[in-house]
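Worked example

This section walks through a single chain of length 116. The input is the sequence exactly as stored; nothing has been trimmed or padded.
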Amino acid sequence: MYAIVKVGGKQYRVEKGDSLVVDRLRDAEGATVTLEPLLYRSDKTVFERDELEKVKVEAVVTGHERGEKVRVLKFKPKRGYKRTQGHRSELTRLEIKDIKALSRRPAKKKEDEDGS
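Given that input, the structure is written out below as C-alpha cells.
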C-alpha cells in the first residue's frame, strides 16, 4: 500500500513508516500534518477526486534541517572577475505515520455562525 502526495508543489511516493525530506514547513517539531494525496494504491488504485477525499495521509514533523551547501561561481576570463556565492536550502523531515482509506468522506468543518 502506497500513496503519491503533494507537498510544497512537489510529488513524493510514500509508504507507512517512510522518512521524507521536503521544503521547509511552518509546522513545529512534533506536529502532525495531513498531506494531500494525488493517488492511492492498495487492492485497487484510486485516482478520482471524490474517492481521494476519503484517503488520509498523516505525517509527523520530526525535525527541521538545512541542506547541503551549493556553491555558485561567476567567472570572466582575462578580466580578473570572480564571484562566489553559496546557498543552503531550509528543509523539514517528515515521518509517515499512517495511510488510511476511510469508508466515507470526513465531515466539513463548520464556519463561525456570526460570520467573523
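What to look for: Residues 49-52 form the longest helix (4 residues).
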